[in-house]
Amino acid sequence: MRQIEISQAQLRAEQMLNSSGIELTEHEIAHIEIADFGLGQLEVQGLELITYINTDRYCAKELVLFPRQTCPEHLHPDIGDETGKMETFRCRTGIVYLYVEGEPTSEISAILPSGSEEYYTVLKEIVLHPGEQYTIEPGIKHWFQAGDDGAIVSEFSSTSRDEFDRFTDPRIQRNGGSS
Amino acid sequence: MRQIEISQAQLRAEQMLNSSGIELTEHEIAHIEIADFGLGQLEVQGLELITYINTDRYCAKELVLFPRQTCPEHLHPDIGDETGKMETFRCRTGIVYLYVEGEPTSEISAILPSGSEEYYTVLKEIVLHPGEQYTIEPGIKHWFQAGDDGAIVSEFSSTSRDEFDRFTDPRIQRNGGSS
């Protein structure tokens, strides 16, 4: 990604957080992570993240999604003797359409990213409004998309080890940041 | 505590959360935990809590503090082979005066609860404004007090096992809820 694109996305994420009343330090604002997953279409498939804390026991992040922005399908595998990452998504603002393994929902609310449809294989829909949350067990494939107004999601989880995430789309290169 | 006192504290906590833009479900609102630590002076020494998630790997809570309300000094011990709870306090609104073990601050900003002064023994002060956070290592004594406008604090941590918390004040009985 070009630096100008990163800076613009950081500014936009900062403005969304500001509007929702979530305060960040100057250092956090300067380090908002912009993940385009190497696909080069940030606004369609991408994510903005602030990692508040990531220890060997727990992790907490704020995820910002622009309108209809999608975090691509992935799972968190076991790593050696350690069970894969378990995570709880709590919607703070906007609407989040979350998809996990299970009986597919007949008409989903998300719009599959054009040209990447085949890499979205789990279609059991969970809709999260502000104040609602859902916990994803380790090893379960999942992806999510914000509604038309974007969304802010708090992620509470076990330790984050983004480099081990397994994405369904083989084109994806994960350069830091995850969910 | 009398039911009327619990209900009033729940309503007050709900209003503070509403004002700060933090959304809760109806179920969460109905189950806001009110902890007076058995001391019978909730507004001086007490805490209001919403536990979002508490698994065997991680925990996330929202803590509400009324103006100058104090969470009494305690620590989280090791339990069997498991290292004690580690926790990160992130101030969302208001000001939090947090005290931990270490070189005592010469003039602290908190007001020690009258009649309980002897049970506040760690006096190294950390001041948290909105967006600022601090991580407390396992086994470290700590306590905290909100400023004049109260405070809301997000707590990210390893698993919560409140019943094992060790309070400095021997009069304290812990009936659920912690921080």
From TrEMBL, chains A, B:
It comes from the Bacteria. Keywords: Carbohydrate metabolism, Isomerase, Manganese, Metal-binding. InterPro entries: D-lyxose_isomer (IPR010864), RmlC-like_jellyroll (IPR014710), RmlC_Cupin_sf (IPR011051). Its cofactor is Mn(2+). Its EC number is 5.3.1.15. Pfam families: Lyx_isomer. It is an enzyme of class 5 (isomerase). One of its GO terms (molecular function) is metal ion binding. It catalyses: D-lyxose = D-xylulose. Transmembrane segments: none annotated. Belongs to the D-lyxose ketol-isomerase family. This is D-lyxose ketol-isomerase. It comes from Paenibacillus roseopurpureus.
